[in-house]
Amino acid sequence: MKEIVLGTISFILYMVYDLEQAGAISYRFRKITKSFFMAGSVMLVAATVMLLWRTGILQMDFGMKQIFFLMFDILFLGLLIYTLFFALPFEKTYVVQDAHKTYDKKMYALCRHPGVLWFAGFYFCLWLAFGTKPLLVMAIWFSFLNFCYIILQDCYTFPKIFSDYGDYQKRVPFLIPNGKSLKRCLDTFKESR
């Protein structure tokens, strides 16, 4: 399935991008690797749309089951986009690269990798809506690759990129939120109003 291959390549690009950011790949390749995150994201979206198109899902009539799970799909997609691009202070995160401090507010107080939860929710809700085997394979495989990606980030690249990542690991759960992290997440949302 070419969509699975394309999605797999996207995660390889993400990992290479992070390895370069952590200094594990020669700095002279920065001109090439600096676009890998965006390229990987475009490839992942393309792989998903291609699979939906190829399996005929985009042309089918939607019943109540599809509408129900697609509402959750939209919720998870919105949470993913918010978490990756809007929950972080944009200027410090994507423009000024000399701060190198973790951000532990809002979604990033909930757990260290909240995007993984929303990502898996998005793909599994797609599968629940339409029930095709290719969507199940995509949901399992892409979620597994995303999990491998965050293991690389948590164990290797983020401790090298962020000077206070060890403290952040002690304060915030890895992937599964707990009562304390949920309270801190909600409190930081209230503070930002």
Order of helices and strands: HHHHHHHHHH
Task: Determine the fraction of residues in helical runs and give it as a percent range.
Answer: over 70%
Specify the biggest β-sheet. Answer: none
Calculate the terminal CA-CA distance, rounded to whole Å. 46 Å
Count of DSSP E strands?
A: 0
Shape: globular
**How many helical elements?**
10
Structural class: mainly alpha
- What value does the Rg take, in angstroms? 18 Å
What keywords describe this structure?
193 residues; mainly alpha; 10 helices; 74% helix
Give a written overview of the molecule.
The chain is mainly alpha-helical and 193 residues long. Helices cover 74% and strands 0% of the residues. It contains 10 helices and no strands. It has helices spanning 2-21, 30-33, 36-54, 64-86, 90-95, 107-110, 114-130, 133-161, 165-171, 179-191. The longest helix has 29 residues, at 133-161. It starts with a helix and ends with a helix. The mean pLDDT is 90.
